[in-house]
Amino acid sequence: MARPKALVIGHSRAASLRRLGPWLEHSGLDTEVRFGGDGLPSDLDGYDAMLVLGGAPLPYEDDRFHWLPQTRALTQDALDHALPFLGICLGGQLLAYVGGGSVHHRQLKPEHGMTNIVLNPAARRDPLFSVMPNRFHMAQNHVDHITLLPAGAVLLAHSRRSPVQAFRLGPCAWGLQFHPEIGADDIAKWDAETRSDIEMDGFDWTRVVRHARETQDENDEAARRLAERFARIVCGEVAASTL
């Protein structure tokens, strides 16, 4: 029997699942990473799940990333057919936007580096987040925020600066504001331009790196749990929500 396969949409040629890739594949889920600029499939036939990675624009800035309309169409396809979906940062914002929510630039304070994520009560009943600890650290690097969730969405997690860190739309589509694919080593390698942007937002770069190292073990474990659980949902080992 063929293993299930997930379409992964990246927004730069260097886009990668990073550590999530091996965790997903070890848990039985194959992945196919496609850079949107090279063209995307017309539909999700042949795929068992979809992931959308992070990127620079807002989810409706088609002039910056010309493949966003097709990414939105595929996201709607996943929603219509209850195909497991995981959106990370821009991917999560895109899910909220497709569902009828709102995403805005710099209406809330930016988040950079490892951030404390706090689960909402609904997470305890969620197929994906029920395996997560009540609090955990995850990487952030964003100045755009989900400011309004779609009707019917279930809020799963928040942080001090972002009321929406994770949500579910329908039975098996999840949007994340944080980056489970990014660990402490990845943060330490961010380029000079990114560091400059972070410092302009009032963050001390040395502290950002130090805090990432201090929370590394906790972050690794939480990210691994999330990846393996999502793979198990796609593989049919965990039932999707019927709420």
Question: Care to describe what's here?
Answer:
This protein is an alpha/beta fold. It has one domain: Class I glutamine amidotransferase (GATase) domain (Rossmann fold). It has seven helices and eleven strands. It has helices at 20-26, 68-80, 90-98, 184-188, 192-200, 205-214, 216-234; strands spanning 5-10, 30-35, 49-52, 85-88, 102-105, 111-119, 135-142, 144-148, 154-158, 166-169, 173-176. Strand 3 (49-52), helix 2 (68-80) and strand 4 form a beta-alpha-beta unit. It is globular and about 50 Å long. It starts with a strand and ends in a 9-residue tail after the last helix. The mean pLDDT is 97.
Structural class designation: alpha/beta
Q: How many domain regions?
A: 1
Q: Could you give the count of β-strands?
A: 11
Overall morphology: globular
Key traits:
9-stranded mixed β-sheet, 30% helix, two-stranded antiparallel sheet, single chain, Rossmann fold, 243 residues, 7 helices, 24% strand, alpha/beta
Quick structural summary:
The protein is α/β, with parallel strands linked by helices.
